[in-house]
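Example record used in the benchmark description.
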Amino acid sequence: MALRKCKECGKEISTSAASCPHCGKKGTPFYIGTMRDILVVGILVWIVFDHFKTEGPAPATGNYAVSREDEGAGKRSSNCEEKIEIPQQQTAFCEAINSYRKLYFNEYHKKKYPEQKNNLEAIFNERSLKLREILGDGNIQGWKGVIRTITVEEGDGAWVEVNLPCNTRLESKDDLVIKVGTPLYESLTQFHDRAPITFSGNFLVASPGPQGQSSEQKHYQESSFTPGGSMDSPEFLFSFKQIAD
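Model output (structure tokens):
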């Protein structure tokens, strides 16, 4: 039998006693009070959770949320989000980036040498083949992204960096300058950093090596410095042909 102390006289009594047998002090049995407290706390937790709960991540069907900005004020519109439908090809691309990233770093953290190096290279090459399967010659139409930066060099032209929702960046760099006076250059005047866009263009295929490469061996050019960096947050060189909101 469980015991508790009477609040009036301090002597031990049964937790189920409706009153103290020593001093006669009445009180709610312990187990009834406990159940009542649990019920009250549960209701309060539910109310708080229901009030502050937010939507979960966007579904894997190719939707993601981006924040539109007030272009006049240069500030984000409060609580203004829009669901963007991602093309099937882009969805497949991002799924491959995410799945091979997971495979690569699962193997990386095993730290099994020396065979680990070969395993990591195999995963990297498998991803290249998968991306070739998805992208073909690298030309894409109507993909969705968010402008990371627009860099304008006076007299030279502009460069654009675009973020994709799978922690991947597309960059126009070096000889991929968007020339002054072209329709694409003129269209950039309506955009700003973090603006959501629809774009078209092509991934750059790496030049063949000294001994040549088959189409299956070719990969898309990146500016990532290491294989690990490429697998974690790839940065592909990209020639933009059209950018629209």
